[in-house]
Amino acid sequence: VRFASLSPSAVHSSIFSTCETSVIAHWFFDAHTYNSRQEHSWQITLNTSNQAASMVKKDLSKFKLEAHPDISKPEGPVMVCILDGFGFNTEDKWNGIHMAETPVYDGLRKVEKRFRTVRAHGTAVGLPSDADMGNSEVGHNALGSGQVVDQGARLVDIALEDGSAFSGEGFQFIKPALEEHTLHFIGLLSDGGVHSRYDQLKQFIDGATKEGAKRIRVHILTDGRDVPDGTSVKFTKQLEEDLKAVREGGCDAKIASGGGRMGVTMDRYEADWSIVEKGWKAHVLGEAPHKFPDALTAITELRKGGVDGKPVTDQWLPPFVIEEDGKPVGTIEDGDAVVLFNFRADRMVEISKAFEYEDFDAFDRVRFPKTLFAGMMQYDGDLKLPAKFLVPPPAIDNVSGQYLANAGVHTFACSETQKFGHVTFFWNGNRSGFFDEDLETFVEIPSDNCPFNELPDMKAAEITAAGHEALRSGKFGMVRINYANPDMVGHTGDLEAVIRACTTVDKCVGELLATVDEMGGRWLIASDHGNSDDMVQRHKKTGEALMSDDGSTPLPLTSHTLAPVPVAIGGKGLPDSVVFRDDLPDAGLANITGTFVELLGFKAPDCWEPSLLTTKA
């Protein structure tokens, strides 16, 4: 469907007034923001299939909600707005949120008993320890499910501890390749605990050797986002030492290829397939613009100026291949086994499709080796992708979407590409599609295809426009919004861009809150983890900012933080008696689920973490 010369309001009104079933709407803009031109030509793809299996209406009869005894149903909609990567942290000049102009957020903080923080990392979201940073995936799992469940890293730890990682169906599937062929590991070389962990990779390499592997090749993707920039050198040195020990034990084990995570292999949500293609060429075909005799040389040379004479950070290293005698040491061939060792799903789905799908047209693979392919985990449960995996995924049932669908609540969810999967797939317990296609509407706005600090406003204006129309449409009881800016711009390490991003988001949130009030509704503002709240690396003991060797430049922090995140409630439709309780000092993200369900006028199910709400006399 193509709408020409229509305002955002008119386009949204057309959709909401004409669509009888829920849709996934993909918005393509011919301008960066809808205010930049007087006329607009928008293309909107309405997808009502979204995988046949996902569209079958599910039996939701067991997911029953009771009316809340003290909080009545609102006249207007309830909006849940997630400010992704927006933590509550030390307020100094390195805190991008503190430095931004945020009059709306500042005002929310002053409302007694309607503003607080909750934990968003570590054990509060199912990760192994409180030293583990939260992330958007586990965060949205908790926000959508109301439960703290064992998550990625912890599931892998358990499988390694009890031996099921090697005795299970996934490893047994790849095992026939170990004697005569090569076992390839592909993933993020990091100990950040967000996508992968180095100690787990080492245990899988050691375990595979004990299981009979004769030839192992590791294809490394350097980090610099979840860990400080420059640590690729440390991790590569460690891996080389560990592979040397493996070789001494009789297994030919080497690093074969690599590249930075933001430009090689690890695209997500099909934002840029060329990223995956670069990885395919390096890992599978042994083709890359940069060739080196070993990985440590590759990384050090590329970092200091191997790309057009300009230094490159870890996350943006170009693809490279390791060669011996003029030939790549580790192409992927028929009969080989391939394991993706990331446990986090979003950035492994596309490369999984490239390895698994016979019918594949996202790019020209040149050749398609017949491999024994497995993921660390199954990255998409509805697509059954990959079909084989070393560690079973968490089964999250009793999520809010199931209860709301059974209660007949019409739900609208919207974000841009970078976070669209979080307000849908991860929110719904790692499920694609709908619980009830007649009740749910998902809107995806394609993200800009550039470094996000170049356009820090991202798609906040377009998301806000979609939110306004959903709130005013009268169709939805629940409106779910995610602003990606604080997280995605935060990952660039650009403090000035972060300040702009947070200022923009604050303005957009204020506009949506006004619309909720206009409709007599209620709202909840929260986040999923920290990021923009600290933009500098710090001394572990003093907390002081770390500077470059010459003392002139602060070392940017590009990872998430361990900070708690804010939660605020309000709206003209919320009775003055409804406030936050004060007996849950250690509450986490999972407590938010029951909170927004109670804002809808329902009693939170007992299987969830307790709601944050109470009613005062």
Strand order, biggest sheet? 1-3-2-17-16-18-5-19-20-6
For the secondary structure, the number of strands is 23
Mean pLDDT: 90
What's the helical proportion of residues? 25-40%
Distance between the termini: 53 Å
Overall outline: globular
What oligomeric state is this?
single chain
**Class by helix and strand content?**
alpha/beta
Q: Which residue ranges are poorly predicted, with pLDDT under 50 across at least 5 consecutive positions?
A: 1-56
Q: Quickly count the helices.
A: 19
Please give the radius of gyration in angstroms.
Answer: 24 Å
How does the major sheet shape up?
10 strands, mixed
Strand content: 15-25%
Describe the structure.
By secondary structure, the protein is an alpha/beta fold. The chain has a ten-stranded mixed sheet, with helices on both faces. Strand 11 and strand 12 form a beta hairpin. The longest helix has 24 residues, at 495-518. Mean pLDDT is 90; it is low at 1-56.
